[in-house]
Amino acid sequence: MNDIKGNNRYSSARNSKYWQQLQELAAQPWSLDKLFTQDAERTSRFSTQAGALYMDYSKQCIDDTVLAALLSLADSCDLSGRIESLLQGAMVNTSEERAALHTALRLPVNAKLQVGTQDVVTDVHQSLARVARLSERVRSGIWRGFSGKAITDVVNIGVGGSDLGPLMATTALDEWADTAIEVHFVSNMDGTQLDNLLKHLNPETTLFIISSKSFGTVDTLSNAKTALSWLLATAKLRAGTEDSVLRRHFIGISANSEKMSAWGIHPEHQLQLWEWVGGRFSLWSAIGLAIAIRIGIDGFKALLAGAHSMDEHFAQADFAENLPVLLGLLAVWNSTFLQVNAHTVLPYDGRLEYLPSYLTQLEMESNGKSVTLHGERLDYDTCPILWGEIGSNAQHAFYQLLHQGTQQVSCDFIACVRRYSDKATNASLQQQHELSLANCLAQSRVLAFGNAAIADADMQIASDADKYKYYRGNQPSTTLLIDELTPHSLGALIALYEHKVYVMASIWDINPFDQWGVEMGKQMAESVHAAMQQEGGEQFDSSTNQLLQHIKLLS
Amino acid sequence: MSADAINTHKHKPAPNPFHNTAINTNVFVLVGHSIEAITSAVVLASLGHAVHLYADKDILAQQLQQYGFEHHLQALWQMYDQQQQIVSYGLPKSADELIQCYEVANDNDERKSVALYWLFLDSISSVWLEDSWITAFNHSHEQALPLIMSGIKQLGAVAALSKLLQRAWVYYLPFVFLKDGDAYSSMLNPSLWLLGEKTPNSSHHLHMLQPLMQHARATHHADIATIEFARSSIMAMLATRVSFMNEMSRLADSHQVDIQQVSHIMGLDERVGSSYLQAGWGFGGNTLPTELLQLQQSSEAQSLAMPLLQSVIHINEDQKELIFRKFWQYFDGFIDNKTVMIWGGSYKAGSGRTAESAIHPLLALLWSYNIRTLVYSDKAQTELAALYKQQPLLELINNPYQQLNEAQAIFIISWLSENRLDIAKLNEQAMPIFDGQNALSRTQIDGLVGDYMGIGRAK
User: Fold this and answer.
1) What per-residue confidence (pLDDT) applies to A459?
2) ipTM tops the 0.90 cut
3) Cα of A292 to nearest chain B Cα, Å
């Protein structure tokens, strides 16, 4: 490891006087309506831009005092040092004694980063070159299935970070797809997705990417096994051998090459991950192969470059203008101090359909923690419950709760300013885009100001009987405007949220790079599965035992 | 501008077009560099007419070189060129310049009369703007002169041009009769003479082409739009027959039936006829692919789906790599770094052209697996050498059998039936043969020691 400190050697923000100050500030009544009435200039101070991303956080329940205290809180836990530790490959993942070097995956080729004995940049670019070569062979029709036909469909089998990242990015960037090759994603353990998909695919022309950092994830391997059986059933009719099917139809991406080989992935078709790449931070690695196949290696490199530009901003910009730092501090303010324990992500752009799911994993798996880096139980709230949906769809689903429910919910509105500008016959599409943008701005305004957003809205509430028309407002939100959605700007957006997560974890003094909370369930599933295949068995609680009996009776 | 003014053309200096008056004072003015234009010039010259051919001289020279396999045509071209019965000039920048060469001459000059103008649309569209040459011909003083157009354009395009031309004697002559490798004879004795007339029953204004019409096995005159549609339909039908047989050949593979025998039997049925029933790697060249592309564009312009044509195109593209897939399957995909022999490269036996030939996708695929390719193609050698001179994995060889011992497989793309195969030499190596042309007879296949994989037929 580098000489840079691991995160457990930094002081905790919890012990700083600013923590106390923020608690006191949070106890005050906050009214967005009043904040805006009293300070017409606040938006010019509470907004900033980095590259293609413009962030307006003036609709957060803050004033200059709160922001100053938050920035001081960041200093109190040496956020700058923690950022340096992250970027320089220190052991920031303390419980697993690893670096978390997703930022190294997007370093330019001429950068230098040595971690221990590993020349990280060289290794990363060698891996990227392999991604380029494999993706190009598939895209150009050189890669052939067992019968010699070119690949028409690629199925990415993975779960969690091996699924959500590539799925989100390929969906968002589908306009950049310059190939007829379709990319599909399968993650469900129960086989539903695979079953639906295989009905429509041709085994001769389908390539499977098996992505699993450990290559031991039961969800992924059970899907991979089904895929292999499906291929072999056809291959045997055409004199294709199992060796040929394994060699021509599977690419493995994992940190465990032994397990890949044992499963049958040909060594030339194995792409290596490193232990220091966390699953939910891995789309920049070989896990992004599906993205490179769909949009080409140049598009994939633009995605990496966009993320790298955000890394540089994160490392260099003053905290007062640093998008990830501000976004992270505001999230801490909402969750820990204002006790707003729900957060929703609302992209007003159908291309970002899977961004909320991606961020759900990124934030909740990273920061859903209740002990510090030193193993001490926390006495404050950490990650809020996060969910989201395309904004215009969410308006017809859960906005009712946001506007008139009893819960405080913070919101991130995300929208792209320019769209459809390159299409000749797009007048009506552009109008739709404008309508979407208008809705985005309108909703953030009503959420912030409630009835005050419309001049005569209060007049409509003539009596108590009309109170169902009341919008209380005061729901804090941040609006992120992207100049235009491109591989570069998407890369920057994702990196923004990655770093936001790290900022939050730094303030909370927790480890965002482990996920021990998902382990016990996996172990228990093995025991239950074993019990399911045995006669009798009363080894669990009465509820589980009775459910098992019910299943056995019916199956 | 006088006729001599053409000499002042900076880019393409030309001799006085009326230098030679010995043969015929009625000059046929042809514009274009296509094989159709060259063939027409030679045929007209052989009928005793003086021909002035206007074309981009570089492209014309390239064309003549590329069509070196048309021995008869080449010999006649050289002869008429030397005799100045065919005089070729650089293409003027505008049609105005061309027309003025022939129209503003001294009244006493007997050499200026033009028999007709013949425009080969495929060649001129990249040089002359459509509007400008139509305007030039509309401003011409000689509106009684016939004007013929040839070439493949989108459906209705030639008819539309003819309407814009303010003259009565406008014709469309599609070269449906032209056979690559036998261009001269196929035009002199056309199998089918189709003539589109702007003015109904006006073909007598083309009396100078009467000998060709008389030699035609079948003729039909109609309005230009109908002839255009007929031309496209004929070509699409021929392409469909080929793709249909290729589709059947895949089924034949799994039924252990020889598709070539099936083709022969089908041809005995008069309702079917025997032409264009040969399974193989598909169709190439310029005519059928261009025609299908134009039809596709026409259907798209009309928002009309043509699924049959789409399938024909798809099958044909896929068919071009079918022998590669057979090769792949034979070696179970372990093909990297091998050496293979390829016989022929042209889009059909007898031609030297490789346009849309299966040789191109085949070579690209083989090279992507680092496979050394020894190519014997006597007629297409020049074209392949020019196209792939930078490719280290390509070796053009002069003897089909000489380096057989270095190869692990043979591909056949186009093999002239008159070149007898030396089965004994093939048997010395006994390597697998992937016959994309179905060039081997059943007797030859039976005589092979090694494996044989054709299209819809095997050993």
Assistant:
1) 67
2) no
3) 20
Pairing of strands A53-56, A47-50: antiparallel
Contact between residue B256 and residue B230 where contact means Cβ atoms under 8 Å apart: no
Active site residues of A: 365, 396, 522
* SS3 label, residue A344: strand
pLDDT at B111: 46
Please indicate whether, in this complex, the C-beta atoms of A140 and B369 are within 8 angstroms of each other. no
Chain B interface mutation, best of A142, A144, A146, A236, highest count of B Cβ atoms under 10 Å: A144
CA nearest neighbour of A494 among A506, A482, A505: A482
Which DSSP letter does residue B282 get? -
In chain B, how long is the greatest CA-to-CA distance? Answer: 79
Instruction: Give the amino acid at B16.
Output: N
**Res. B3: pLDDT tops 50:** no
Question: Which of A140, A142, A244 is opposite residue B332, by nearest beta carbon?
Answer: A244
Q: CB pairs below 8 Å between A and B: how many?
A: 28
A497 vs B106, more confident: A497
Beta bridge partners of B120: B150
Distance from CA of A238 to the nearest CA of B (A): 9
Condensed to tens digits (0 to 9), the pLDDT of residues B409-448 reads 999 999 987 788 999 999 999 999 999 999 999 999 999 9
- Residue B150 pairs in a beta bridge with B120
Residues A298-318 have pLDDT tens digits of 999 999 999 999 999 999 999
DSSP category for residue A47: E
Q: Is A244 on the interface with B (CB under 8 A)?
A: yes
Q: Quote the CA–CA distance of A231 and A241 in Å, as a whole number.
A: 10
pLDDT single digits (tens) A15-52 = 999 999 999 999 999 999 999 999 999 999 999 999 99
Exposure letters B215-244 (e unless 16+ CB within 10 A, then b): ebeeeebbbbbbbbbbbbeebbebbbbbbb
Per-residue pLDDT at B67: 87
Angle between helices A161-172 and A487-508 (to 10 degrees): 140
Alpha helices in A264-319 (DSSP H): 289-316
Q: How far is CA A385 from CA A359, A365, A393, in A?
A: 11, 11, 20
Q: How many CB atoms lie within 10 A of CB A124?
A: 25
CB contact under 8 A, A244 and B328: no
Return the sign of the alpha-carbon dihedral for residues B75, B78, B84, B86.
Answer: positive
Contact state of B333 with A149 under an 8 Å Cβ cutoff:
no
The answer to whether residue B379 scores a pLDDT higher than 90 is: no
* Cα(A225)–Cα(A243) distance, integer angstroms: 15
Of A81-85, A330-334, A467-471, the range with the lowest mean pLDDT is A467-471
Neighbours of B435 (CB within 10 A): 25
pLDDT exceeds 60 at position B281: yes
* Residue among B165, B289, B153, B118 at smallest CA distance from B227: B153
Q: Which residues pair with B90 in a beta bridge?
A: B55
For residue A265, give the DSSP letter. -
Chain A (119-158) residues lying within 8 Å, Cβ to Cβ, of chain B = 137, 140, 142, 144, 146-149
Label the pairing between strands B433-435 and A47-50.
Answer: unpaired
The total number of residues written for chain B in this structure: 459
CB nearest to B324's CB, from A146, A148, A240? A148
With the C-alpha atoms ordered B194, B195, B200, B203, is the resulting torsion angle positive or negative?
negative
Q: What is the reported pLDDT for B22? A: 43
Q: What is the pLDDT of residues A239-284, one digit of tens each?
A: 778 999 999 999 999 999 999 999 999 999 999 999 999 999 999 9
Which token pair is A547? Answer: 């459910």
Report the alpha-carbon distance of residue B371 to residue B333 in Å, rounded.
Answer: 13
User: pTM score, two decimals?
Assistant: 0.88
Helices (H), ranges, B67-115: 71-82, 95-103
Nearest Cα of chain B lies from the Cα of A150 at a distance, in angstroms, of 9
